[in-house]
């Protein structure tokens, strides 16, 4: 005989879906306070207003990709490798994936969980409990769909938790972008630092070789009585000083290479000598190129709110803390949950879908907090304090960003003149040495005067390289502080 089509799920399931749709409409409310962005705790203009205005027509840093900003082909290779292999950036990306998964978990609470179940239950009843006086074994088969404890979010508790998780995820994503910008700047600074040490080492090696030749000549003259022992020891001191300086710079260069390797995340690939680079002879960019790199419009301090990912991350953390207040407030109100199930039950497996075997259960539950020893009040206080901490963190992040840009603008204003002055000192020291060598050749000046001029020329050359490096790194700091380096 043909069995009738099962209709046992239809009516209960329709009623259940209707209840869930109504619950979804009612869950739109939230007890979270209205969030207002705190006032920007910095001045309306930069301290170096004239310097900022001088570059007002340039392209903004946030719109300038790092490939356009750093024209050195070797540096571009290193930055690209670092973005792929740097472990800190990889950790930041994984943190973002973790936050997204946490958000997905929290979002799942806004929809009911529906489970399918099949059960085979067997139970033995002892003889003294049966009317026949004989023990019996009962059998029962159940199949159906169940929805365990779905919370009807009348007061927005689940919605607030979902909003908090979303903001936390967005904050983590912004933090990843901030880490990427910092990585680009750190690789560039490490690269130019290594190049500066290489240039200083070349100067020190050149100075050592020159002083060694002078020492050898003085020793030959001392052997025949043409130079004094004092001149010999003075030349020896200068030669060994240059040698020690060269060894120190060689060590510093090796350590700078190690720092660059750590940032890149793997041993850097050999330089492509056939490519075009923008570096001048010695490794550092030219003054004209640094001028172009520094010509970034600073805009207004309020522009940093949209340019810098770290500020946007702090704002998202503030939104998350504000949403948690809504969840804490909702804990004071009744919590309504719904448990339901529809299915079929039968003492035999073959009769599960017979007519009349349908079963269902519907169990709404309301829980009203009456006494919790102050737990809910304490949770609300914690949420409010955490919001205040997020406000302080947001304001501090803006102040730090303001200071970084202001420092970079101050460096842009003064370091160019400092490099020019230091180059003039080097040129004057070189000319002084040339004149003293002429006077020494004519017997007018002493060898000690020539040695002193050599020492001061070497010091001025080293200082010039350091000043040029400082100006280059300040241009990189300005680019990073203004929100560049992401693309």
TrEMBL record:
> Is Signal given among the entry's keywords?
yes
Q: Name one GO molecular function term.
A: efflux transmembrane transporter activity
Residue ranges annotated as coiled coil are none
Where is it mostly found?
A: membrane
Which Pfam families does UniProt cross-reference here?
OEP (PF02321)
Q: Which organism is it from?
A: Rugamonas apoptosis
Q: Which GO terms describe its cellular component?
A: plasma membrane
Family matches, as PROSITE patterns: PROKAR_LIPOPROTEIN (PS51257)
User: SUPFAM superfamilies per the record?
Assistant: Outer membrane efflux proteins (OEP)
NCBIfam families listed in its UniProt record: outer_NodT (TIGR01845)
Q: Its topology with respect to the membrane?
A: Lipid-anchor
What keywords does the record list, in alphabetical order? Lipoprotein, Membrane, Palmitate, Signal, Transmembrane, Transmembrane beta strand
Q: What is this protein called?
A: Efflux transporter outer membrane subunit
List where in the cell it is found: Cell membrane
Q: Which family does it belong to?
A: Belongs to the outer membrane factor (OMF) (TC 1.B.17) family.
Q: Where is the signal peptide?
A: 1-32
Question: Which sequence ranges are marked TM in the entry?
Answer: none
Q: Is the Transmembrane helix keyword given for this protein?
A: no
